Amino acid sequence: MDDAQDPFPAPASMQDAWTGSALYGSNATYLEALYETFLQTPEAVPVEWRRYFEALPGLASGRTEVPHAPIRAEFTYDARHPAPAAGRTIDKQLRVLQLINAYRFLGHRTAATDPLALPGQPRPEELRLDYYHLGEADLDTRFHAGSLVGVNQAPLREIVARLEATYCGPIGAEYMHIGTTDEKRWLQQRLEGAYGRPEPDGERRFYLLQRLTAAEALEQHLHSRYVGQKRFSLEGGEGLIPLLDILIERAGANGVEEIVLGMAHRGRLNVLINIMGKSPDELFGEFEGRTHGTALAGDVKYHLGFSSDRMTSGGPVHLALAFNPSHLEIVGPVVEGSVRARQDRRGDAVGRKVMPVIIHGDAAFAGQGVVMETLNMSKTRGFSTKGTVHVVVNNQIGFTTSTCMDARSSHYCTDVAKMVNAPILHVNGDDPEAIAFVTALALDYRLRFRKDVVIDLVCYRRHGHNEADAPEVTQPMMYQRIKTLPTSRAHYAERLAGLGLIDEAGARALVTDYRAQLEAGGVVVPNLIEAAAIEHPYTVNWRQYIDSEVPEEVSTAVPLEQLRELSAALQRLPEGFALHPRVAKIMDDRRKMAAGAMAIDWGYAETLAYASLVDEGRRVRLCGQDTARGTFFHRHAVLHNQLKPGVYVPLRNLHPQQADFLVIDSLLSEEAVLAFEYGYATASPNALVIWEAQFGDFANGAQVVIDQFISSGEEKWSRLSGLVLLLPHGYEGQGAEHSSARLERFLQLCANDNLQICVPTTPAQMFHLLRRQVLRPLRKPLVVMSPKSLLRHKLAISSLDDLAEGHFQEVIGECDELPGRGVETVVFCSGKIYYDLLQRRRDEDRRDIALIRVEQLYPFPETEIKRQLRHYPSAARFVWCQEEPRNQGAWPELSWTLNQTIGMSRPLMECVARPPSAAPAVGRFDLHTQQQHALLDAVFNR
Q1: Quick check: helix, strand or coil at residue 596?
Q2: Nearest to residue 40, comparing CAs of 185, 255, 253?
Q3: Domain residues of the chain, as ranges?
Q4: Residues 6+ apart with CB under 8 A from 260
Q5: How far apart are CA 786 and CA 516, in angstroms?
Q6: Is domain 202-524 classified as CATH 3.60.15.10?
Q7: Each residue of 210-226: pLDDT tens digit?
Q8: Does position 704 have pLDDT exceeding 90, yes or no?
Q9: 710: closest CA among 697, 698, 696, 725?
Q10: Which of 48, 372, 480, 841 is least crowded, fewest Cβ atoms below 10 Å from its Cβ?
Q11: pLDDT tier for residue 464 given thresholds of 50, 70 and 90
């Protein structure tokens, strides 16, 4: 093309470029931005401008930066004089480049992603030609398209058509918020290179129609067969089924071997049948009440999980759909934890073998804070799963709440994902070809960049929130539109008929064939692998923990010589590693403890428990907001060099053959982090998995996890977990918020041996309790009311021999020599109050009061308590003493059990406690002290 034809001719010299009034001052801001782009990534700038910038004297002499002020001065022009024609041409070229960029930023705002075509926001003015002083007269003028993929020079009409097809069709792509140029260019290449979408062949299109048919036919079959029963239909969002099919196949082709899915109830039955391979006959049995699972209580059918294996072109892929409650998004972090455990088991550090997929609802994705917490985990060391594929089934409504007015303040329900620079791909749920394209794009992005990615499947809900609902009462306009809308399958079948790929009879035959399969009750998923036909090398055997006979005692002692060897390894530091003076003192004390010169304290007993477990091949994972150091400056699992950047973790450096020890200072989250740890524990029965609250009451922020998973998961779903909760608990006058771990709430949740609730009072008890948790053939969650002031209490100590011998004692009897028949009062207690009672008794030299510590509150140790009572046949008074108010703590739940245990022939047990209170504790230290003295007075002076 010669210069006469070129609308953007190169100047004869740089002087011509700068002195020509085309480069007038009103373009200075844009040109400076273009120049900044050139300095960082020259290839992103049109070739003509690259030549200009490369010829600058500062760059020609080898400099990578030149002052901008002279350039701005050269661009300045007198606004009273119009630019000549050549200048206006260059000005329009710049504006075309601005237009291209505007489509990348804002095209999604006007994309045709809504199958209902409901009225939306007006088209952004930045996408109008007149915004850039362009018009009809410019449409046939050829312009350079800059970095627009697939175009060098073209008429403006063609450039705009390409941009409209790419960014304003059935796909609306948000990616320009991403901070990494490489990612943006990659997405640009894929989106613009496909010109909005690829053209699949006939076979691929037929496959998409088949999967849409399966999705629709199942819902219609259930709707006619089980009239009025809740199933939370997928109708209106059937595109989810081909989406998941494509995702699984492409993931398998790229080497993924496991996918863990999480989703709420909307469409879950469809996913179970058409993706996971659950037998329709089994589902029908659940509708009809003739199928009983192994769980004690069971759960509704749209909460149940499932696992299966599907063959892909890259080999078998194991699928696991997580069990979940109705608390919508809470299953997300549970899935992430399960995936991280599976990745750790495989040594899959880059997340190529195991991948999470989480399916969300639109209102929940925007409305529930746990979504933000989970996204915030995605790049952190202790919680990253190297990218999650998020799929939002966007029904454009939240139960009856209008999403555009009341459900959120952001434009999209997916805007929260921008916090982690995740690309967001909005797609029309009635366009299966566009769905196929964005699914492949999202999966490839996740595998390449190991980051989260979001598919916003914009669809609708053909029925109400459930099938008995009347949605037109609250959304009349929306549901008038829905009633007239053909289904996704019908719409796509008509489209394929127009292309000559299928006729009406052929489309009907697909429905008939699928329904016949359903009636037969057999599995309807293609490429499903028989469970017995595949052997998973990374499968965890849970059978040994199901209905296992639990011994009353298990050996948790560690030989003295082994303890000393571990202690020596824990004291080794790298050359030149400088400790903080307070930490150095703690390490020095631990050397003395190992030598027997000092009593063992809590911090060291706990450390030795972890060391012995990893030494024996048991993985330990310890997580919480201040866990590495310990909220109370007692643990110091991670040591910090005081002279230069660097840390050292002794528990990771015992010897080369040890199991892994991971300690993580978590993000400031309770709900998502505890859910993650629960998910991790459910996939790691051989590991000790611990979540530690900064203070025990912080568990309040994760109550949904405790109620819906930890306490009831076994009873609802037969899901076992050995998760440990360390909840610092004790009344030290710190006020209502940092005293109580709400022991009463956990005891209220106890039934059918579902939990273990323990309150250890010595370092040795903590040592044996932690070891018992993984050495016993039992996997039940363990809730520990862990100490605060006891960490340094002069009486709360143990010896090295206590660790080398014995086991965890569920009840600890009297430690002082008392005359059995001289004891008139037996006091039962738990936790820190024991040491206050002991000190008072010794101070008063009282020999008529025996103190019995109940270290395990549930399962209640009835037999051992009865054994202890035999020592005191003359006792006539029985007391339960607790620090908590009378309406809290252990008493409300255990009073009946305690009285049953001591026997009805004895006097009723009395309770000594703080007065009933709405708050867990008082906030005034003087009042706290008065109450504490009153407790002791009530025990010793009646």
Answers
A1: coil
A2: 185
A3: 1-111+125-131, 202-524, 600-635+659-804, 811-941
A4: 320, 322, 335, 338, 339, 342, 354, 355, 356, 357
A5: 59
A6: no
A7: 999 999 988 888 877 77
A8: yes
A9: 725
A10: 480
A11: low
pLDDT band for position 2 (cuts 50, 70, 90): very low
User: At 615, is the pLDDT very low, low, confident or very high (cuts 50, 70, 90)?
Assistant: very high
User: How many residues are there in the chain?
Assistant: 942
Query: What's the distance, CA 524 to chain centroid?
Result: 31
Sheet architecture: strand order including 389-394: 171-174, 424-428, 453-458, 389-394, 354-361, 258-263, 315-321, 306-312, 528-529
Alpha-carbon distances of 141 from 96, 182, 192, 665, 803, rounded to whole Å = 11, 32, 21, 60, 86
On whether the CB atoms of residues 782 and 724 are closer than 8 A, the answer is yes
**Rounded CA separation 383/678 (Å):** 13
Least confident range from 192-201, 562-571, 656-665: namely: 192-201
The enclosing H or E element of 210 equals helix 202-225
Interatomic CA distance for residues 60 and 54, integer angstroms: 7
What token pair was written down for 888? Answer: 């809290």
Task: Express each pLDDT in 19-43 by its tens digit.
Answer: 333 344 445 555 666 776 777 677 7
Of the pLDDT bands very low, low, confident and very high (cuts 50, 70, 90), residue 303 is low
Token pair of 30 as six digits: 């844009």
Strand partners, 453: 389
HSE value, Cβ hemisphere, 13 Å, CA-based, for 701: 18
Tokens of 630: 């310990």
State the pLDDT at residue 423: 97
Cα distances (Å, whole numbers) of residue 591 to 149, 542, 599: 66, 40, 11
Query: Is 80 exceeded by the pLDDT of residue 875?
Result: yes
H-only helix segments in 463-618: 476-483, 488-498, 504-520, 560-571, 581-595, 602-615
Determine contact, residues 483/239, Cβ cutoff 8 Å.
Answer: no
Please name the residue that has the structure tokens 């939306």: 120
- pLDDT at position 22 is 38
**The two domains 600-635+659-804 and 811-941 share their CATH topology (first three levels equal):** yes
- The CATH class given to the 600-635+659-804 domain equals alpha beta
594 pLDDT more than 80: yes
Q: Coil, helix or strand for 39? A: helix
Is-contact 334 676, C-beta < 8 A? Answer: yes
User: In 768-876, where do the E strands start and end?
Assistant: 782-786, 811-812, 825-829, 849-854, 856-858
Of 887, 912, 896, 753, which is closest to residue 827 (Cα–Cα)?
A: 912
Give domain 811-941's CATH number out of 3.40.50.11610, 3.40.605.10, 3.40.50.2000, 3.40.50.360. 3.40.50.11610
HSE of 449, CA atoms in CB hemisphere, 13 A: 26
Closest CA to 392 of 418, 373, 365, 415: 365
pTM, to two decimals: 0.88
Is the dihedral angle over the CA atoms 542, 546, 549, 551 positive or is it negative?
positive
Element (H, E) at 215: helix 202-225
